[in-house]
Amino acid sequence: MAPRHPRVLALVLAGGRGGRLAPLTDHRAKPALPLAGSHRLVDVVLSNLTHSGISDVWVVEQYLPHSLNDHLANGRPWDLDRTRGGLVVLPPYQGTEGEGFADGNADALARQAPLVAEADPDLVLVTSADHLYTLDFREVVDTHLEAGADLTMVTTREAPDPSQHGVVEVEDGRVTGFAYKPERPASDVVATEVFLYDTRVLLAAVETLVESGTELGDYGDSLVPYLLAHHTVVEHRLPGYWRDLGTVPSYHQAHQDLLAGRGVELGDPRWPVLTSVTDPRPVRVEQATELRRSLLGGGAQVSGTVRDSVVGQGCVLEPGCVVEDAVLLDGVVVRSGVTVRRAVVDSGAVLTEDRVGGDEVLVVDRDGEPVR
Q: What pTM was computed for the model?
């Protein structure tokens, strides 16, 4: 008899406020933030899941869920609109155990524990929705099973600043140390916020911590340290590109990486990043003085100079403007003679004055005003 493949339930944690990306997240959930002028951040993890053959996917929401729900489209773009399994959206609720708003990603996971127990998967794959990477999750499952692990965390050496992440110490694949956002990291290996748990171990750990009065908070506060102290924890090293898009500088840099061909290839025919974003309008380039190494969203009208930039859907760049090293979200208008350089501009802004960043990336809000 052939061995039974474990049943994997994926939980995509998409509920955080994303305050470090303000004002871009003042009116949208972070996973709904545009990516490369043609996608949304959540598309990355959902595409990785569907290409990995994982069809039981729960999206845990909290902050401004309506900004994400329309995009999710019942899972249709990722072939997750199924009679059995498929995409399930989990908003905050009242009236039973786990009610209310979560305080951190581990707390969000604990609030869904009764539903996870009822679904009774063999393994629970927990991911964030604001990272850029390519990963076949079946390889993570293989690592987990071969090691006989209770928790397998996907790790990377790609983080520019390990102190902003969970820092991992590893010996022969076994995780021997973990510190959450330490001032002095013990290594350059960090957790990518992709965790594969044995379901029974996860539920028992959550129950133990809750009953002891421990505040779960984020995954690195108590859950992962508890599992590391009492169970077998191993790593699965992500071999390629990875970036956390949770801050404005990292969001801007990820787009520069995409432009330079260093990041994820969104249109890779072997592993495309799927999306519900559709804009059939062609890009119109008229009196452009220069158009160099840029991505243009559907319906954009370009009559100025564009260098090393991402121009979102429906943007209008009037004659004589200059857009360089910038990310324009959907519907931005740059008037004639205006220069936008080293900036991220929120959707719908109309720019009538120069907006130029310096050592730090400038953020421009919907009113066209610089925020930082």
A: 0.93
For domain 8-260, the question of CATH label 3.40.50.150 is answered with no
For residue 63, pLDDT over 50 is answered with: yes
Q: What angle do CA 110, 114, 116 make, to 5 degrees?
A: 85
CA angle 86, 92, 98 (to 5 degrees): 100
Is residue 228 within a helix (H) or strand (E), and if so which, with residue range? helix 223-230
325's tokens: 């090293």
How many other CB atoms are found less than 10 A from the CB of residue 1? 3
Domain ranges in the chain?
8-260, 284-364
CATH 3.60.20.10 fits 284-364, yes or no: no
Q: Give CA–CA dist 339/355, Å, rounded.
A: 6
288 close to 302: Cβ distance less than 8 angstroms: yes
CB atoms within 10 A of CB 86: 17
Token pair 């990603």: residue = 105
Judge whether 235 and 175 are in contact, CB under 8 Å.
Answer: yes
**315: its two tokens:** 């943007």
d(CA 7, CA 224): 22
Spatial contact of 119 and 6, defined as CB atoms under 8 Å apart = no
Which candidate, 66, 157, 132, places its Cα nearest to that of 264? 132
CA distances from 39 to 133, 246, 270 (A): 14, 16, 18
Give which of 279, 354, 291, 350 is closest to 316, Cα–Cα: 350
Confidence of residue 94 (pLDDT cuts 50, 70, 90): low
The backbone torsions φ and ψ at residue 273, rounded to the nearest 5 degrees and listed phi first, read: -85, 110
Q: Which two tokens stand for residue 6?
A: 């474990």
pLDDT score at 142: 96
Q: Do the two domains 8-260 and 284-364 of this chain adopt the same fold? A: no
Rounded CA separation 179/205 (Å): 19
What is the β-pairing status of strands 131-133 and 242-244?
antiparallel
